[in-house]
Amino acid sequence: MFYRVLRVLSISVVFVLVSSPAIAETYDLSPVYVDTVGHYQPLDLYPVAVAADDQLVYIVDLYHEEIRARNLDGTPAWSFPYLEQWPRDIEVDTAGNIYVAASQQCNIKKYSPSGELLLTVGEWGRQPGQFTLPLAFVLDDRGNIYVADRDTELSKFDPEGNLIWSTLGSGNPAAELIRPNGVAIDSDGNIYVADSNPKSIVVFDPDGNYLRTISPNGTGAGYSWKSPVDIAITADDSLIVLDRLQLLDHIGNDQVFKLDRNGTLIDSWAAKGRAPGELWEPQGLTLGANNDVWVAGYQGHNVVQYSQAGEFLQEWNDHDIQPYELTELKGASVGAHGRLYVVDFWNQVVQVFDRYGNFDTMWGERGQGDGTVFNFPRFSGINAAGEIYIDDDHEVRRFDSEGNFLSRSDWISFPGGIDFDSGGHVWVTGRNEHTLRKYTPDLQLLQIIDGTGIPLGLNTPVGVAVSPVNGNIYLTDKGNHRVLVLDGDGNYLSSWGSYGTGQGQFRAPLGVAIDSRGLVYVSEMTNQRIQVFTSAGMYLYGWDVPGVPGKRESRIWELAFDGDYFLYGPDRTLGQAEVHKWALVPDPAVAGTPAYVVGQDLGFYIWSEDGSQWHLRWNSDGILREFTGVITSTVPFAGHSGIDTEAGDQVNAVSGTRIEFTAMETDGQDGIDIVTGGDGLIVFDLAIDGVERSDLVWVGGGGFIPTGLPVPLQATAPVVLDQIGMPTYVPGTDQGFYIWQDEDDGEWHIRWSGGGGNLDNFTGSVTVVGGELSAVRRFSFEGPDTLNTSGGSFSFDAWADISDDGVDFFVTEGATVNFNLSINGSPADGSIRVGSTSTAAPGAFTLVSQSGQVVIPGGEPETILSVGKPVYVPTQDLGFYIWQDIKDGEWHIRWSGGSTGNVNFTGTIRTTNPASNVRPFSYESDDTLDAGSDVIRFDAKANAGQDGVDFFVPVGTVLTFELAVDGVVDAGSVFIGLDSTHPVALPFSLISADTSVAIYGRPNYVVSQDPGYYLWRDANAGNWHLRWSGDSVESYEFSGTIVSSSGISSYSEHLYESNDDLVVIPNGLSFTGIAGNGEDGLNFSVPAGSQLFLELQVNGSSYPGMVSYGAGNVNPTVLPVSVYSQ
After folding, report:
1. Which one, of 981, 1109, 971, lies nearest residue 1046 by Cα?
2. 871: how many CB neighbours lie within 10 A of its CB?
3. Alpha helix ranges (H) inside 84-210
4. What is the mean pLDDT of the chain?
5. Nearest CA to 917 among 875, 886, 878, 889?
6. Contacts of 872 (CB under 8 A, 6+ apart)
7. Residue 958: Cβ within 10 Å count
8. What global pTM score does this model have?
9. What DSSP line would sit under 316-352, residue for residue?
């Protein structure tokens, strides 16, 4: 058996497929990673710590891994990347230097205002001056640093990072810190530590001696704490304490407390909630210059300012969740027709997608209550009636398929996986209470299994799945690193697995799913893999699921099947947050036509002789039936044609990788022939009268019947022939097709010749994939002959007897040219000759263009601002609107109707690098989108609304736009970027800018040693610097231009010599400099929101590898490069 591994998307994933040889034949599916659903895009604010001075508020953003500064009115000031994981506190000294607690790196880091690392204090260890988890620190007015750590207690360091004293080993139990989260100093120099675990404030004198503990709980103080996580002290020595409330029962309770130094309550405010001025699991607080209180509302995605008296002053937040944008996932379930429900843990929503990854709808909001108001939704399940069950902190909720609330369960301590038995009962794991619960369909409790009678009991059970074969219940017992098997009543039957990395071993198993054959699929937290077992626990196969490099390991918490052949796994990995989709590919013999009687044997019949030319037929049984389907491929189709379709039947290529059909048939058969363009998968999603019937699908001459739908099959690339040189034939005598490409200029020719006797009908289509088709011209056409060209393809219908006709055309080098040819209505097998060798070809085949090019119009990229959304009113402002996101660099094109009638918007977008994640926006049924690797074509209509396309391209990609409104080309109907700029003319080109924060901070290089260009921007002032350095071995000539979309505000030369030159040009600068032993350069500033375009050359040529920008020494992939100046 041949097992294949295929990765289609650009994300790097490597599979390790491991089998047990003795039982390899019992598992006949090959796991193939085919897609992802959604993409990681956190909201704008995940603040875990905050500091402030008289001008700025400084924020540590956990998910964006940034240190950010905002002006006091909330407008952004600057930011720089902070790549250390899990920062937990921030302080700013009087010089503007920034200190951050790098908790997982076990140190405190000091940075300059521009992001340059100045000092590191501490290291991992359990000795004085070392740390294991430093979560909090504070600076005194002399610059001394006081750090509170989980294991090494409280330490004081001088401004240079030298240890002065430590409370470790003091011998006083009252001084021990368990979970310190906040530190502050009063006017006498006493140190106050907020310790969240014992729920207290521990006070030390300036020398680290224990003074007292403030702990109001159970003392009758009139207030209590659940988890004090931070503390600040006002100018009058009042204590401001932040208490993080985690449970839904705490809604409405205050979380900021103002006390005197003895712990007497003065006031409290900031209730737990989602309304303005309220907090949801806040993480840190600080005092501003006027003693205003600033709070980092981590899971509320907000920063809130209060007066010292508790008055709500302002809030900065982000609750705008967009389709496809995901943050942290645990749950995914599949409903009818492959509808995928994705539960976003952090964003508190459920996003719904169709089987092909297209966004459908979204429901959910943050908060507490019935309905779709969630705190932290996690796991999910869908029953046979299509109802979806979702657990949220301490309960399970039941909804219909559209998200309407139906019922809820009793209280459960953090419920886990959900599944259903054949009687409709709901089985739910209780992770924290170590139980398995059984409910009625409307969530009335029937039974609790607490581990009694189970060897080792239950230890954090997570996943649950009920076998459709034997009715047994399978649990992932995470803490015991095993899979448990119970009977349908919950009685223990068996278990398998132990702690380890070997086959059949586990390290924290999480998700479990079972296919229709009873095979058990298990995901793991730590081993980062999925393993497959028989129902009795015998290991069959496994494959790796790597996480994001440099971040946490992959964490697949839940597994869900779409039929038997597609498996989903939501990945909770920080920085990834997408749903993985695997095809579990069967390997039947596809050659040979399945046996069936036309007009009698109801069903679908699939076969392929060579793996590239596929045949699908649907056959009725004497009753009028509707046959529908979607055929997709992981590689572009080379061509397709409908077979025996009647009027009213529809066969449409929705994109280069998707064909849809709808047909009616009573007593015959129709079908489709398809040619795949390369090695990959072809997937058949089929239905009869709206019902998926895998038992009415037959594949190949052996009559393989799939166990579920959709069914993926392995496709191969068609045979590629050598087409250079004209075949030998006599026009009007040698009947057939003759195809060749010229060696000198790369021009293509196709000729069809009659045989001199009868008048023959020659029909066909030619489709170009992965390149450009141009200059399509008729050769010797007569009156009834027709030629139709559309985008990257053309088709013809012509007649010939005593002569030959044909078509001439050009195709870019390396493109795939797909031919589908017929003579007198039948495939032209045996009547096609290719190239000077006159090699025979089948009726459908593929060639690769060996030379030739197409000049793409559009000229040099325009130096205008393309970043930021233009201002327009959909349905009112007619035209095209194009922009690139500041946040993630995604590109958008929208076309808006004017509400005066349907307007036709057409266009082609060409990219010099492949586009990815191309998606339609608000498309209607008659709109079309054809997305190739480097060409996007669309044809759509808009009236009272807007449609569009979203996509990503790499930084430095040149995009060329050819656009028309009702067939009219008008640059005045196109609006680009935040300034709504018109292009000079159509077509036009833009360059994809780098909108990341990687441009901040000086690159790391040695002057006179590391030759090249170095570009950076100051984080605070916004000034730009360009340097060019030699290597002390030879002299280099550095030349280039810097152009700004908003012009250059100011500039100055840096170490220019007499042979260096600088010229002011429109909106920019042109320079030439010589550097050998030393460096030269320029300093300049541009208005905020400008887009820079840099053309940089060394010795007259462009070398992207000799250009570095930002503190991360990022190299552009191409030149010129564009960057956005925030």
Report:
1. 981
2. 11
3. none
4. 89
5. 889
6. 879, 881, 896, 975, 980
7. 20
8. 0.65
9. EE-----TTEES-EEEEEE-GGG-EEEEETTTTEEEE
Kindly calculate the radius of gyration of the chain based on its CA atoms and give it in whole angstroms.
34
792: left (phi over 0), alpha (psi -120 to 50) or beta: alpha
Q: Which amino acid is at 946?
A: Q
Neighbouring-strand partners of residue 382 = 388
Judged by DSSP in three states, 1125 sits in strand
Distance CA 946, CA 924 (A): 10
* Cα–Cα distance, 607 to 591 (Å, whole number): 6
DSSP label of 1117: S
**Tokens at residue 868, please?**
């930021």
Q: Are 193 and 176 in contact (CB under 8 A)?
A: no
How many whole angstroms separate alpha carbon 410 and alpha carbon 655? Answer: 48
As given in the structure block, the two tokens for residue 442 are: 């409307």
The whole-number pLDDT of residue 768 equals: 79
The residue type found at 202 is V
Task: Tell me if 891 sits within 8 A of 953, measured CB to CB.
Answer: yes
Beta strand residue intervals within 87-131, DSSP E = 87-92, 98-102, 107-111, 117-121
Strand pairing partners for 124?
Answer: 131
Q: How far is CA 955 from CA 847, 889, 914, 1017, in A?
A: 32, 8, 11, 18
Q: How far apart are CA 97 and CA 1008, in angstroms?
A: 30
Q: Rounded to an integer, what is the distance from CA 267 to the centroid of its chain?
A: 45
Alpha-carbon distance of 754 to 798, in angstroms, equals 11
With beta carbons less than 8 A apart as the criterion, state whether 708 and 563 touch.
yes
Integer Cα distance of 570 and 1079 in angstroms: 50
Confidence category of residue 3, pLDDT binned at 50, 70, 90? very low
Burial of 720 (0-12, 13-18, 19+ CB in 10 A): exposed
710 preceded by a cis bond (ω within 30 of 0): yes
Query: What is the Cα–Cα distance from 811 to 854, expressed in whole angstroms?
Result: 7
Give the separation between CA 1095 and CA 1097, rounded to whole angstroms.
7
pLDDT tens digits, one per residue of 702-734:
999 999 999 999 998 876 678 999 999 999 899
Cα–Cα distance list, 436 to 412, 451, 452, 464, 1051 (Å): 10, 8, 11, 9, 70
Q: What is the pLDDT of residue 770?
A: 66
Q: CA–CA separation, 1073 vs 1062, rounded Å?
A: 8
Res. 854 pLDDT band, cuts 50 70 90: very low
Give the 3-state DSSP-derived string for 790-833, with helices as H, strands as E and coil as C: ECCEEEEEEEECCCEEEEEEEECCCCEEEEEEEECCEECCCCEE
Please state, in angstroms and rounded to a whole number, the distance separating the CA atoms of residues 706 and 29.
Answer: 12
* C-alpha 1106, offset from chain centre: 30
**CA–CA separation, 115 vs 997, rounded Å?**
11
Q: How far is CA 605 from CA 399, 631, 686, 943, in A?
A: 38, 14, 11, 42
Determine the Cα–Cα distance for residues 243 and 255; give it in Å rounded to an integer. 5
The candidate with the shortest Cα–Cα distance to 366, out of 352, 379, 350, 382, is 350
Report the distance separating Cα 843 and Cα 849, nearest Å: 19
C-alpha torsion 178→180→183→189, nearest 10: 10
- Distance between CA atoms of residues 614 and 718, nearest Å: 11
> Three-state SS for 1026?
strand
E-only strand ranges, 454-544: 461-466, 473-477, 482-486, 492-496, 509-514, 520-524, 529-533, 539-544
Residue pLDDT, tens place only, 339-350: 999 999 888 899
